[in-house]
């Protein structure tokens, strides 16, 4: 297989992720206005259960599939790559049948156990999605193994589009019947989206089937691993990744108990404590999810690239991909981190203008969590690297060490009256910092890689600091004239322009790297014309 950088795939997934998030926001906000707090309560009671089942069924399998396939494609064995796809499809179909059946037929028991009996219709409505999403994951993993991220991106956008349209329409129609049925209608949007997503994947597969089978037939007599061994390999790779994906959700559940107890111990009333916790988790934390989309795209795309280079024993290309991955994570994560920290209060007031006092109170939490973005970016990217190297348990263990530190810091700092919930945010930042540092050490140990400190860290930090100064200054100047909303948006635009300019001034991005992006040659040509003027 020809050498192929992961950058195009990462960009494709990042753009798809941004589109999906925007559509999700366009769904959630109007939905809350239609079905109200009670209806959202039913919906939110069903959705986390669905996500839990989905995580257990599919969190690590697409990564495992893409890794196993890319390793086989790297040595020209397309037939065995196709066998991995077929075996994984059967596995995921079986897991989908089991998980969807449990949620559908056990909805009454689960809703009673969670003390949300009114969420039963929503749980039943969303359960069929668990059948279709795992099947979709097998197709995505297959194409990702060839470092082709377009089918994944297309199916994700199609899935989200139908989820939003169908969910919103049904909620609007059914709200006159009851809030329980309206919530169920909104939840069924996930099922409709999953069906649309798998149809899109099948259409893409059928369109390419002739070329796929032609590649397969060229070496279909090559003796390979048995189906049992392939299943064993899938489980060996996917189980640690699934455990890693489950660590933070579990930690967030534990966090609730620690934070609330410590706030009560330091004299905060029950109502004030729940408000402070809501500011942390409901107002500040969701903002951090946006830059995470971009770095998650890098982590997904880098796995097959690293796996292929490692299988071919191409040490120089392996190290190139790792260096590029970490640099890209820095170039994306750092401006997001510094931008959030610089504009933490203006951002909160912009997003929650009707709750200004709470927004201002939540700003320090956002400031601290903004600091964690850069560590999260590096930790995610290097987790993908280690997964590509076949060392998928290492990032899980490293994150676990970070979580232990988080528990200790959260318990101590949240118990200090003046710090309160900011202690939990500090604990989260520390957890990701430990995980990223340990992942760097592990990658250096596994590959012998020596990072270019100037190119990887110093130049991005320089660009980010200059950007932050201009962001702060532009906001202050504009605020006296236009107020918070316009000034914040203006400052963000100024920051993006300055940061982009600084990247080229400091040569933090090379022309060769730009050429790996879609239309990269045209971008380089345009930049060169601008320089020559």
Task: Kindly describe this structure.
This protein is mostly helical and 533 residues long. The protein folds into three domains: 1-224, no CATH class; 243-451, no CATH class; 453-533, no CATH class. Helices cover 86% and strands 0% of the residues. It is built from 19 helices and no strands. The mean pLDDT is 85.
**Main sheet attributes: strand count, strand direction, barrel closure:** none
Question: What is the H/E order?
Answer: HHHHHHHHHHHHHHHHHHH
Number of domains: 3
**What is the alpha-carbon Rg in Å?**
24 Å
List the helices and strands and how they pair.
Layout: H1 7-58, H2 61-74, H3 78-105, H4 107-113, H5 120-126, H6 129-145, H7 150-174, H8 179-217, H9 227-265, H10 270-311, H11 315-342, H12 344-351, H13 356-388, H14 393-414, H15 422-447, H16 453-482, H17 484-505, H18 511-514, H19 520-532
Helix pairs in contact: 1-3, 1-5, 1-6, 1-7, 1-8, 1-9, 1-10, 2-3, 2-6, 2-9, 2-10, 3-6, 3-9, 4-5, 5-8, 6-7, 6-8, 7-8, 9-10, 9-14, 10-11, 10-13, 11-13, 11-16, 12-13, 13-14, 13-15, 14-15, 16-17
């Amino acid at each position: 297989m020809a050498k192929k950088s992961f950058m195009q795939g990462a960009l494709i997934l990042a753009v798809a992720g941004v589109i999906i998030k925007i559509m999700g926001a366009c769904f959630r906000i109007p939905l809350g206005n239609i079905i109200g707090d009670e209806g959202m309560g039913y919906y939110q009671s069903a959705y986390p259960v669905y996500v839990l089942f989905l995580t257990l069924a599919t969190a690590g399998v697409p990564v495992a599939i893409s890794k196993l396939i890319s390793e086989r494609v790297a040595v020209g064995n397309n037939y065995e790559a196709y066998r991995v796809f077929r075996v994984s499809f059967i596995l995921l179909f079986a897991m989908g049948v089991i998980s969807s059946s449990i949620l559908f037929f056990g909805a009454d028991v689960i809703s009673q156990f969670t003390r949300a009996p009114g969420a039963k219709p929503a749980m039943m409505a969303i359960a069929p999605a668990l059948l279709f999403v795992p099947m979709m994951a097998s197709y995505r993993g297959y194409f990702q193994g060839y470092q082709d991220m377009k089918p994944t991106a297309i199916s994700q956008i199609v899935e989200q589009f139908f989820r939003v349209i169908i969910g919103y329409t049904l909620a609007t129609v059914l709200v006159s019947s009851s809030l329980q049925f309206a919530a169920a209608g909104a939840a069924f949007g996930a099922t409709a989206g999953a069906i649309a997503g798998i149809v899109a994947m099948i259409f893409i597969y059928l369109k390419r089937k002739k070329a796929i089978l032609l590649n397969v037939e060229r070496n279909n007599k090559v003796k390979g691993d048995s189906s049992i061994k392939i299943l064993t390999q899938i489980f060996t790779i996917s189980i640690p990744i699934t455990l890693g994906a489950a660590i933070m959700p579990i930690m967030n559940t534990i966090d609730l108990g620690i934070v609330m107890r410590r706030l009560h111990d330091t004299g905060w009333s029950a109502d004030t404590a729940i408000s402070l916790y809501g500011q942390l988790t409901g107002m500040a934390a969701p903002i951090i999810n946006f830059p995470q989309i971009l770095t998650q795209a890098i982590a997904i795309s880098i796995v097959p690239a690293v796996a292929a280079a490692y299988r071919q024993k191409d040490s120089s290309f392996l190290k190139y991909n790792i260096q590029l991955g970490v640099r890209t994570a820095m170039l994306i994560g750092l401006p997001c981190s510094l931008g959030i920290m610089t504009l933490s209060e203006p951002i909160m007031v912009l997003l929650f203008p009707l709750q200004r006092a709470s927004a201002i109170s939540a700003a320090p939490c956002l400031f601290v969590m903004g600091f964690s973005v850069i560590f999260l970016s590096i930790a995610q990217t290097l987790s993908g690297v280690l997964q590509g190297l076949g060392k998928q348990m290492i990032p899980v263990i490293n994150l676990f060490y970070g979580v232990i530190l988080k528990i200790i810091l959260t318990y101590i700092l949240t118990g200090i009256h003046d710090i309160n919930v900011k202690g939990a945010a500090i604990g989260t930042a520390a957890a990701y910092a430990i995980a990223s540092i340990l992942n760097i050490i592990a990658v250096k140990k596994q590959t012998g890689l020596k990072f270019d400190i100037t190119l990887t860290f110093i130049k991005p930090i320089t660009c980010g600091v200059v950007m932050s100064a201009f962001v702060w200054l532009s906001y202050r100047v504009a605020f006296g004239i236009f107020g918070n909303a316009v000034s914040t948006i203006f400052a963000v635009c100024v920051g993006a322009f300055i940061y982009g300019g600084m990247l080229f001034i400091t040569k933090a991005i090379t022309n060769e790297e730009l050429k790996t992006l879609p239309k990269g040659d045209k971008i380089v040509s345009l930049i060169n014309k601008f320089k020559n003027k």
